[in-house]
Amino acid sequence: MIKPVIPENEAERLHALRTLQILDTSHEERFDRVTRMAKRMFGVSTSLVTLIDEDRQWFKSKQGLDITETPRDVSFCGHAINQNGLFIISNASQDERFFDNPFVKDDPKVRFYAGYPLKIREGVNIGTLCLIDQEPRVMNAEDQQLLKDLGAMVEQEIKSIQLATLDELTLISNRRGFLTLVEHSLSICRRNKAPMSFLLFDLNKFKAINDAYGHHEGDCVLTKFAQLMRKTFRNSDVIGRLGGDEFVAMLTDSNKENTDDILARFVEAVDEANSVMNKPYTIEFSVGLAHFQYDTKKSVEEMIQDADAAMYEHKKKEVR
Known about the structure:
Strand content: 15-25%
CATH class of the largest domain: Alpha Beta
Number of helices: 10
Helix content: 40-55%
CATH architecture of the largest domain: 2-Layer Sandwich
Strand order of the largest sheet: 3-2-1-6-5-4
CATH superfamily of the largest domain: GAF domain
Number of domains: 2
Number of strands: 10
Distance between the termini: 62 Å
Shape: elongated
CATH topology of the largest domain: Beta-Lactamase
Radius of gyration: 22 Å
């Protein structure tokens, strides 16, 4: 068995998936309608809307299957998300990647698989609309187009969710999306009795960049800053753009030492980006840091305000 390759943009992919806040949620008619149609139209035993998390494949919608998730390592969909188009296996028992897969050797004895990778944006696939059957099959061009059309319907539903929680420019969580994700992370910290930290970032001289070089360059700065946050912070951390030139991060299970390490890595990443951007300006920022214990009585907004106050103290020291 050949395990699925992890995409190069895995951190970006996982962030996009988790921003949607649909993992481990109830079935929804808008997705179930498509999987019912797919199962009936193609006459297969199983049709699924799958989401590929860090180490598992979870089923948002399922027809013809009882389980809710499988390990990512043995999933067909883990391979499918690495494709730009359909991923089709006509007979898994004769395919070197899958002939000894446990789902091929044992129940449900998969033979045919066809997966449409679900794009949240170009190059970022979060899961699939897939068909599974116990008999080998060949898909003709008409069938392939039909699966693509059904997959596009699922993508439209996902994008409608995305619009409410994602910052359109930087493609990280907006304020609403960040607060939603933080509430979930806060519950985990309280359950595990783990401390947390909030970092509030404010871009320095951002207005001057807009005024001197135009809003397009300002947008480039915001986009690059968000990209560096995605690459530097851990998958367990929550990042977002609060608005304007303000960004925020919540670090879970954090203490002063590991928070300082992450911040140092981020400063290094920004410095490196400045050295290769070949721009008439540099990305500069002030940051405020606030630590909290799991049993803090403060609300999320109050914790952000504490980090914001620390950021302004940092900014005043820089001016001096």
